[in-house]
Protein backbone atom coordinates (compact mmCIF):
# COMPACT_ATOMS: atom_id res chain seq x y z
CA UNK A 1 0.00 0.00 0.00
CA UNK A 2 1.26 3.53 -0.78
CA UNK A 3 2.54 5.34 2.32
CA UNK A 4 0.57 8.45 1.44
CA UNK A 5 -2.64 6.41 1.36
CA UNK A 6 -1.91 5.05 4.81
CA UNK A 7 -1.12 8.55 6.05
CA UNK A 8 -4.43 9.79 4.71
CA UNK A 9 -6.28 6.96 6.43
CA UNK A 10 -4.59 7.75 9.71
CA UNK A 11 -5.45 11.44 9.39
CA UNK A 12 -9.10 10.61 8.73
CA UNK A 13 -9.25 8.39 11.77
CA UNK A 14 -7.70 11.01 14.02
CA UNK A 15 -9.90 13.82 12.71
CA UNK A 16 -12.80 12.34 14.66
CA UNK A 17 -10.89 12.45 17.94
CA UNK A 18 -11.58 15.56 20.05
CA UNK A 19 -8.68 17.62 21.35
CA UNK A 20 -7.94 18.34 25.02
CA UNK A 21 -6.05 17.09 28.05
CA UNK A 22 -7.14 14.31 30.38
CA UNK A 23 -8.78 15.44 33.63
CA UNK A 24 -8.15 12.11 35.27
CA UNK A 25 -5.34 11.72 37.78
CA UNK A 26 -2.55 9.28 37.09
CA UNK A 27 -3.92 7.86 33.84
CA UNK A 28 -4.94 9.75 30.73
CA UNK A 29 -8.19 9.02 28.96
CA UNK A 30 -6.03 8.19 25.93
CA UNK A 31 -4.38 5.40 27.89
CA UNK A 32 -7.71 4.16 29.24
CA UNK A 33 -9.15 4.00 25.74
CA UNK A 34 -6.20 2.03 24.46
CA UNK A 35 -6.60 -0.40 27.34
CA UNK A 36 -10.30 -0.73 26.62
CA UNK A 37 -9.73 -1.32 22.90
CA UNK A 38 -6.66 -3.55 22.55
CA UNK A 39 -7.68 -4.63 19.08
CA UNK A 40 -7.28 -1.06 17.85
CA UNK A 41 -4.26 -0.02 19.88
CA UNK A 42 -1.79 -0.81 17.10
CA UNK A 43 -3.68 1.35 14.64
CA UNK A 44 -3.99 4.42 16.84
CA UNK A 45 -0.64 6.11 16.21
CA UNK A 46 0.63 9.12 14.36
CA UNK A 47 2.99 8.94 11.40
CA UNK A 48 5.51 11.56 10.42
CA UNK A 49 6.96 12.21 7.00
CA UNK A 50 8.72 9.48 5.11
CA UNK A 51 12.48 9.47 5.66
CA UNK A 52 14.94 7.06 4.05
CA UNK A 53 12.09 4.86 2.89
CA UNK A 54 10.63 4.34 6.39
CA UNK A 55 7.82 5.96 8.34
CA UNK A 56 8.91 8.05 11.31
CA UNK A 57 6.59 8.32 14.30
CA UNK A 58 5.91 11.86 15.45
CA UNK A 59 7.99 13.00 18.40
CA UNK A 60 4.94 14.76 19.81
CA UNK A 61 3.08 12.66 22.37
CA UNK A 62 -0.40 11.70 21.13
CA UNK A 63 -1.84 12.33 24.61
CA UNK A 64 -0.79 15.97 24.36
CA UNK A 65 -2.79 16.44 21.16
CA UNK A 66 -5.74 14.07 21.30
CA UNK A 67 -8.26 12.62 23.71
CA UNK A 68 -10.27 9.44 23.24
CA UNK A 69 -13.38 9.50 25.39
CA UNK A 70 -13.82 6.07 26.96
CA UNK A 71 -17.29 5.23 28.30
CA UNK A 72 -17.61 4.54 32.00
CA UNK A 73 -18.62 0.99 32.82
CA UNK A 74 -19.28 1.65 36.50
CA UNK A 75 -22.23 3.46 38.04
CA UNK A 76 -21.28 6.78 39.56
CA UNK A 77 -21.65 6.45 43.34
CA UNK A 78 -20.14 9.86 44.07
CA UNK A 79 -23.32 11.39 45.44
CA UNK A 80 -24.22 12.95 48.77
CA UNK A 81 -26.24 9.83 49.66
CA UNK A 82 -26.12 6.18 48.69
CA UNK A 83 -29.90 6.20 48.54
CA UNK A 84 -33.06 4.93 50.16
CA UNK A 85 -33.79 1.31 51.01
CA UNK A 86 -37.45 0.50 51.59
CA UNK A 87 -38.25 -2.79 53.33
CA UNK A 88 -41.87 -3.97 53.24
CA UNK A 89 -42.26 -6.74 55.80
CA UNK A 90 -45.63 -8.50 55.67
CA UNK A 91 -46.08 -11.01 58.48
CA UNK A 92 -49.75 -11.14 59.52
CA UNK A 93 -52.40 -11.61 56.84
CA UNK A 94 -56.15 -11.15 56.83
CA UNK A 95 -58.18 -14.34 57.15
CA UNK A 96 -59.77 -13.87 53.72
CA UNK A 97 -56.40 -14.40 52.05
CA UNK A 98 -55.97 -17.89 53.49
CA UNK A 99 -52.34 -17.02 54.23
CA UNK A 100 -50.56 -18.06 57.40
CA UNK A 101 -48.35 -15.95 59.62
CA UNK A 102 -44.83 -15.61 58.24
CA UNK A 103 -42.85 -16.51 61.33
CA UNK A 104 -39.18 -15.64 60.98
CA UNK A 105 -39.73 -12.63 58.73
CA UNK A 106 -38.94 -10.14 61.51
CA UNK A 107 -35.51 -11.76 61.76
CA UNK A 108 -35.05 -11.19 58.04
CA UNK A 109 -36.15 -7.55 58.27
CA UNK A 110 -33.80 -6.84 61.15
CA UNK A 111 -30.78 -8.39 59.44
CA UNK A 112 -31.52 -6.60 56.17
CA UNK A 113 -31.85 -3.30 57.97
CA UNK A 114 -28.40 -3.70 59.52
CA UNK A 115 -26.74 -4.92 56.31
CA UNK A 116 -28.06 -2.13 54.09
CA UNK A 117 -27.34 0.56 56.67
CA UNK A 118 -23.78 -0.72 56.76
CA UNK A 119 -23.61 -0.05 53.01
CA UNK A 120 -24.72 3.53 53.60
CA UNK A 121 -28.42 3.27 52.70
CA UNK A 122 -31.12 5.22 54.51
CA UNK A 123 -33.29 2.26 55.54
CA UNK A 124 -36.99 2.36 56.44
CA UNK A 125 -39.05 -0.70 57.44
CA UNK A 126 -42.81 -0.86 56.90
CA UNK A 127 -44.72 -3.72 58.51
CA UNK A 128 -47.98 -5.38 57.45
CA UNK A 129 -49.10 -3.24 54.51
CA UNK A 130 -52.15 -3.76 52.33
CA UNK A 131 -51.84 -3.69 48.55
CA UNK A 132 -53.10 -0.11 48.38
CA UNK A 133 -50.73 0.93 51.15
CA UNK A 134 -47.76 -0.66 49.39
CA UNK A 135 -48.58 1.11 46.14
CA UNK A 136 -49.23 4.44 47.87
CA UNK A 137 -45.96 4.18 49.79
CA UNK A 138 -43.83 3.38 46.75
CA UNK A 139 -45.58 5.96 44.59
CA UNK A 140 -44.74 8.59 47.19
CA UNK A 141 -41.09 7.44 47.28
CA UNK A 142 -40.89 7.46 43.47
CA UNK A 143 -42.20 11.03 43.38
CA UNK A 144 -39.50 12.23 45.77
CA UNK A 145 -36.36 13.97 44.52
CA UNK A 146 -33.49 11.45 44.40
CA UNK A 147 -31.04 13.82 42.70
CA UNK A 148 -28.57 13.61 45.59
CA UNK A 149 -28.76 9.78 45.76
CA UNK A 150 -26.67 7.24 43.85
CA UNK A 151 -29.27 4.46 43.71
CA UNK A 152 -32.45 3.00 45.21
CA UNK A 153 -33.29 -0.33 46.83
CA UNK A 154 -36.57 -1.98 47.75
CA UNK A 155 -37.10 -5.30 49.53
CA UNK A 156 -40.35 -7.27 49.67
CA UNK A 157 -40.81 -9.90 52.39
CA UNK A 158 -44.17 -11.58 51.91
CA UNK A 159 -46.17 -14.45 50.48
CA UNK A 160 -46.23 -14.66 46.72
CA UNK A 161 -47.01 -16.42 43.46
CA UNK A 162 -45.40 -16.07 40.05
CA UNK A 163 -45.53 -12.37 39.20
CA UNK A 164 -47.46 -11.54 42.38
CA UNK A 165 -46.62 -10.24 45.84
CA UNK A 166 -49.09 -10.31 48.73
CA UNK A 167 -50.25 -7.36 50.74
CA UNK A 168 -51.86 -8.41 53.99
CA UNK A 169 -55.23 -8.22 52.22
CA UNK A 170 -54.39 -10.14 49.04
CA UNK A 171 -52.12 -10.33 45.98
CA UNK A 172 -51.06 -7.70 43.47
CA UNK A 173 -48.70 -7.64 40.50
CA UNK A 174 -45.07 -6.96 41.38
CA UNK A 175 -44.76 -5.01 38.13
CA UNK A 176 -47.47 -2.64 39.33
CA UNK A 177 -45.06 -1.53 42.07
CA UNK A 178 -41.73 -1.64 40.26
CA UNK A 179 -42.91 0.33 37.20
CA UNK A 180 -43.34 3.35 39.47
CA UNK A 181 -39.56 3.73 39.25
CA UNK A 182 -39.20 3.50 35.46
CA UNK A 183 -37.18 6.17 33.74
CA UNK A 184 -40.29 7.86 32.34
CA UNK A 185 -41.92 8.04 35.78
CA UNK A 186 -39.09 8.66 38.27
CA UNK A 187 -36.86 11.21 36.53
CA UNK A 188 -34.38 11.69 39.39
CA UNK A 189 -33.38 8.00 39.22
CA UNK A 190 -32.77 7.94 35.46
CA UNK A 191 -29.48 6.18 34.75
CA UNK A 192 -29.15 5.05 38.36
CA UNK A 193 -29.43 1.46 39.65
CA UNK A 194 -32.81 0.44 41.04
CA UNK A 195 -32.54 -2.77 43.05
CA UNK A 196 -35.46 -4.98 44.05
CA UNK A 197 -35.06 -8.00 46.33
CA UNK A 198 -38.07 -10.30 46.60
CA UNK A 199 -38.38 -12.95 49.31
CA UNK A 200 -41.55 -14.77 48.31
CA UNK A 201 -42.64 -17.96 46.60
CA UNK A 202 -43.20 -18.00 42.86
CA UNK A 203 -45.21 -21.22 42.62
CA UNK A 204 -45.86 -24.55 44.32
CA UNK A 205 -43.14 -26.79 42.89
CA UNK A 206 -40.34 -28.26 44.99
CA UNK A 207 -36.72 -28.50 43.89
CA UNK A 208 -35.74 -32.10 44.61
CA UNK A 209 -32.08 -31.50 43.81
CA UNK A 210 -29.92 -33.87 41.79
CA UNK A 211 -27.50 -34.69 44.55
CA UNK A 212 -27.97 -35.02 48.30
CA UNK A 213 -25.58 -32.62 49.99
CA UNK A 214 -25.30 -32.31 53.74
CA UNK A 215 -26.80 -29.04 54.89
CA UNK A 216 -27.33 -27.49 58.29
CA UNK A 217 -30.32 -28.57 60.34
CA UNK A 218 -33.18 -26.18 59.70
CA UNK A 219 -35.74 -27.14 62.32
CA UNK A 220 -39.30 -26.76 61.02
CA UNK A 221 -39.44 -24.99 57.67
CA UNK A 222 -42.16 -22.90 56.12
CA UNK A 223 -42.71 -21.53 52.63
CA UNK A 224 -43.93 -18.21 51.27
CA UNK A 225 -46.61 -19.46 48.93
CA UNK A 226 -50.31 -19.78 48.22
CA UNK A 227 -51.57 -23.38 47.52
CA UNK A 228 -29.36 13.59 26.61
CA UNK A 229 -29.17 10.51 25.11
CA UNK A 230 -32.01 8.16 25.43
CA UNK A 231 -31.99 5.05 27.55
CA UNK A 232 -34.76 2.44 27.74
CA UNK A 233 -37.30 3.20 30.47
CA UNK A 234 -36.79 -0.34 31.80
CA UNK A 235 -33.00 0.06 32.01
CA UNK A 236 -30.97 0.01 35.24
CA UNK A 237 -33.26 -2.35 37.14
CA UNK A 238 -32.12 -5.44 38.98
CA UNK A 239 -34.50 -8.05 40.41
CA UNK A 240 -33.11 -10.58 42.87
CA UNK A 241 -35.72 -13.26 43.52
CA UNK A 242 -35.36 -15.76 46.33
CA UNK A 243 -36.29 -18.59 43.97
CA UNK A 244 -36.86 -19.42 40.30
CA UNK A 245 -40.29 -19.17 38.63
CA UNK A 246 -42.74 -21.84 39.74
CA UNK A 247 -40.98 -22.85 42.95
CA UNK A 248 -41.32 -22.59 46.71
CA UNK A 249 -39.09 -20.29 48.73
CA UNK A 250 -38.00 -21.65 52.11
CA UNK A 251 -38.06 -19.82 55.43
CA UNK A 252 -36.99 -20.94 58.89
CA UNK A 253 -39.28 -19.61 61.65
CA UNK A 254 -36.34 -19.20 64.01
CA UNK A 255 -33.56 -17.99 61.74
CA UNK A 256 -35.30 -16.43 58.77
CA UNK A 257 -35.31 -17.29 55.08
CA UNK A 258 -32.46 -19.04 53.29
CA UNK A 259 -32.19 -16.27 50.72
CA UNK A 260 -32.12 -13.36 53.17
CA UNK A 261 -29.73 -15.16 55.53
CA UNK A 262 -27.33 -15.70 52.64
CA UNK A 263 -27.76 -12.20 51.19
CA UNK A 264 -27.00 -10.53 54.51
CA UNK A 265 -24.01 -12.77 55.16
CA UNK A 266 -22.41 -12.01 51.79
CA UNK A 267 -23.19 -8.29 52.05
CA UNK A 268 -21.64 -8.12 55.50
CA UNK A 269 -18.52 -9.97 54.35
CA UNK A 270 -18.00 -8.58 50.84
CA UNK A 271 -20.56 -5.81 50.23
CA UNK A 272 -17.99 -3.04 49.93
CA UNK A 273 -15.47 -4.97 47.84
CA UNK A 274 -17.37 -7.01 45.24
CA UNK A 275 -19.51 -5.93 42.30
CA UNK A 276 -23.25 -6.56 42.74
CA UNK A 277 -23.39 -9.53 40.35
CA UNK A 278 -20.44 -11.13 42.12
CA UNK A 279 -22.25 -10.62 45.42
CA UNK A 280 -25.46 -12.19 44.17
CA UNK A 281 -23.63 -15.07 42.49
CA UNK A 282 -22.11 -15.91 45.85
CA UNK A 283 -25.57 -15.69 47.39
CA UNK A 284 -26.79 -18.19 44.79
CA UNK A 285 -23.94 -20.53 45.68
CA UNK A 286 -24.59 -20.27 49.41
CA UNK A 287 -28.32 -20.96 49.08
CA UNK A 288 -27.71 -23.83 46.66
CA UNK A 289 -25.03 -25.59 48.69
CA UNK A 290 -25.58 -24.72 52.35
CA UNK A 291 -29.30 -25.36 52.79
CA UNK A 292 -31.60 -28.35 52.54
CA UNK A 293 -35.02 -28.80 54.06
CA UNK A 294 -35.56 -31.29 56.86
CA UNK A 295 -39.04 -32.37 57.85
CA UNK A 296 -40.89 -35.36 59.28
CA UNK A 297 -43.18 -35.05 56.28
CA UNK A 298 -41.37 -36.66 53.28
CA UNK A 299 -43.13 -34.22 50.94
CA UNK A 300 -41.24 -31.32 52.51
CA UNK A 301 -37.96 -33.06 53.30
CA UNK A 302 -34.61 -32.87 51.47
CA UNK A 303 -35.68 -30.03 49.19
CA UNK A 304 -33.35 -27.44 47.67
CA UNK A 305 -33.60 -23.86 46.44
CA UNK A 306 -31.80 -21.58 44.01
CA UNK A 307 -32.32 -17.79 43.77
CA UNK A 308 -32.92 -16.12 40.43
CA UNK A 309 -31.42 -12.87 39.14
CA UNK A 310 -32.91 -10.69 36.42
CA UNK A 311 -30.64 -7.79 35.53
CA UNK A 312 -31.22 -4.81 33.30
CA UNK A 313 -28.26 -2.99 34.80
CA UNK A 314 -26.13 -1.26 32.19
CA UNK A 315 -22.98 -0.82 34.27
CA UNK A 316 -21.08 -2.42 37.11
CA UNK A 317 -22.25 -1.52 40.61
CA UNK A 318 -19.92 -1.18 43.57
CA UNK A 319 -21.21 0.18 46.86
Automatic annotation (TrEMBL):
Listed PANTHER family = CASPASE, CASPASE-7
Annotated Gene Ontology cellular components are: cytoplasm
Q: Where in the sequence does UniProt note compositional bias of the Polar residues kind?
A: 19-28
**Active site, per annotation:** 159, 201
Give the matching SMART domains: CASc
Report any one BP term from Gene Ontology: positive regulation of neuron apoptotic process
List, alphabetically, the InterPro entries matched.
Answer: Caspase-like_dom_sf (IPR029030), Caspase_cys_AS (IPR033139), Caspase_his_AS (IPR016129), Pept_C14 (IPR002398), Pept_C14_caspase (IPR011600), Pept_C14_p10 (IPR002138), Pept_C14_p20 (IPR001309), Pept_C14A (IPR015917)
- Family statement: Belongs to the peptidase C14A family.
Q: Where is the composition biased (Basic and acidic residues)?
A: 1-16
Q: Looking at the Swiss-Prot or TrEMBL record, what is one Pfam family this protein matches?
A: Peptidase_C14
Could you tell me what this protein is called? Caspase-7
- Tell me, what is one Gene Ontology molecular-function annotation carried by this entry? cysteine-type endopeptidase activity
Amino acid sequence: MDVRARDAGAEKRHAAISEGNSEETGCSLWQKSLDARPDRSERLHIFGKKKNGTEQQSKTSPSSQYRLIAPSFQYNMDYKKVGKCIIINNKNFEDKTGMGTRNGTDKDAGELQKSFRNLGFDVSVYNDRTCDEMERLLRQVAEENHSDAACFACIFLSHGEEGLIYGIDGPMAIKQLTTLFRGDKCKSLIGKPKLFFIQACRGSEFDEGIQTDSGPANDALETDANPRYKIPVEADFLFAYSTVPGYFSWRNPGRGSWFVQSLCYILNEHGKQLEIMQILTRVNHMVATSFESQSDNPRFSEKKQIPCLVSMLTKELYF
